[in-house]
């Protein structure tokens, strides 16, 4: 049995059986799903992607997104899930569903992905906090399996060693691939023997990491490891992503090579807005959403389109307001906008007229949008 569920876009869900369930720490657990032979093509995925799971919580249906820890070559769907509160939906999922039960699971999606380059020498650095390690684990397993010339560095922050999830997995990977993978653990609420590893992953800590860990490059005596970094992966809460992304950028990494996945609603811009625009007042907005037509006027173009529609109480789909998740993707059918930042859309999608409402500033008196991308 299959279901199509509308989450801003039409999403295909399938019933999958829980094959394995494991408590990882006092507030995290993993689920592994059995993929029937007839659904193998539906559940092909790229490292770093996620699935949505539909289940009952306190008598209501909820749909939550969870990143996969499995790598594509493993041909399974494994999720790492954090229980934020005893009354939350994740706690209900852990308590009420057991091995053998079936859940509605969406086909994989998400753009926290990298192009595989198995023939190149690459250096990839990742920063993760807490359960943000899940898509990073998927990436690292996949890269170690497919890219024999790529070296990896992981900087993983947690409150304490007791809350450090997937440590056994990570330590095994580091031991197996000791020539290509180095992992460093940081704790914000647990004193460490070396003061260097105490505290949050932030701009100050990044500066120390660059100067004390990523400084000497054995492969090139004239440069540092940081100079050789090709891609940066960041996953965690919004403030951490904002801080580290900007710090990486200011330390010379191009924005297009800084990739992040947000694990909470976040309303700030990741990068500061560096452009100024001519003021346009009383901008007319026509838009299609959930099959209905709407018309409104926003006071001016000082704020982004999504934020102004939300102020007017329109139920526009969004998750992050930061150009990361793609929930507010829509088609620009008339008018002109400036897309300030884009971590989600491909060049082909932009060329077709797709925009992210949360990162778009109106540049014409009339704008027409279509959120129903099916």
Automatic annotation (TrEMBL):
Keyword Flavoprotein belongs to the record: yes
Domain of life: Bacteria
SUPFAM superfamilies found in the cross-reference section: 2Fe-2S ferredoxin-like (SSF54292), Ferredoxin reductase-like, C-terminal NADP-linked domain (SSF52343), Riboflavin synthase domain-like (SSF63380)
Residues annotated as domain FAD-binding FR-type: 11-115
InterPro entries: 2Fe-2S_ferredoxin-like_sf, 2Fe-2S_ferredoxin-type, 2Fe2S_fd_BS, Beta-grasp_dom_sf, Cbr1-like_FAD-bd_dom, FAD-bd_FR_type, FNR_nucleotide-bd, MRET
Keywords: 2Fe-2S, FAD, Flavoprotein, Iron, Iron-sulfur, Metal-binding, Oxidoreductase
Cofactors named for this entry: FAD
Keyword Transferase in record: no
PROSITE patterns in the cross-refs: 2FE2S_FER_1 (PS00197), 2FE2S_FER_2 (PS51085), FAD_FR (PS51384)
GO molecular function: 2 iron, 2 sulfur cluster binding; flavin adenine dinucleotide binding; metal ion binding; oxidoreductase activity
Domain named 2Fe-2S ferredoxin-type: residues: 283-374
Record protein name field: Ring-1,2-phenylacetyl-CoA epoxidase subunit PaaE
């Amino acid at each position: 049995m299959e279901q199509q569920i509308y989450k801003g876009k039409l999403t295909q869900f399938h019933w999958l059986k829980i094959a394995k369930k494991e408590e990882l720490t006092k507030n995290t657990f993993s689920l592994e799903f059995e993929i029937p032979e007839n659904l193998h093509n539906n559940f092909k995925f790229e490292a770093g992607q996620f699935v949505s799971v539909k289940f009952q919580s306190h008598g209501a249906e909820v749909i939550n997104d969870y990143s996969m820890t499995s790598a594509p070559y493993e041909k399974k769907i494994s999720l790492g899930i954090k229980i934020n509160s005893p009354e939350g939906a994740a706690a209900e999922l852990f308590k009420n569903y057991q091995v053998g039960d079936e859940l509605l699971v969406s086909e994989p999606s998400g753009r926290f992905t990298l192009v595989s380059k198995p023939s190149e020498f690459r250096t990839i650095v990742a920063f993760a906090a807490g359960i943000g390690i899940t898509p990073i684990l998927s990436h690292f397993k996949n890269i170690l399996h497919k890219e024999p010339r790529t070296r990896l560095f992981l900087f993983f922050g947690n409150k304490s060693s007791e809350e450090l999830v997937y440590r056994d997995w990570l330590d095994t990977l580091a031991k197996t691939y000791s020539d290509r993978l180095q992992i460093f653990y940081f704790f914000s609420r647990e004193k460490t023997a070396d003061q260097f590893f105490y505290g949050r992953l932030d701009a100050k800590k990044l500066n120390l990491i660059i100067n004390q860990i990523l400084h000497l490059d054995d492969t090139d005596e004239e440069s540092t490891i940081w100079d050789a970094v090709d891609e940066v992966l960041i996953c965690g809460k919004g403030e951490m992503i904002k801080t580290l992304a900007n710090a990486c950028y200011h330390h010379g990494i191009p924005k297009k090579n800084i990739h992040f996945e947000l694990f909470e609603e976040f309303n700030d811009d990741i990068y500061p807005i560096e452009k100024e625009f001519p003021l346009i007042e009383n901008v007319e907005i026509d838009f299609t959403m959930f099959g209905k037509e709407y018309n409104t006027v926003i006071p001016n173009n000082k704020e982004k389109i999504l934020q102004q529609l939300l102020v007017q109480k329109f139920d526009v789909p969004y998750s992050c307001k930061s150009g990361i998740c793609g929930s507010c993707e829509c088609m620009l059918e008339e008018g002109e906008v400036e897309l300030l930042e884009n971590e989600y859309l491909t060049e082909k999608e932009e060329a077709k007229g797709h925009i992210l409402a949360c990162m778009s500033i109106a540049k014409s008196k009339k704008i027409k949008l279509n959120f129903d991308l099916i």
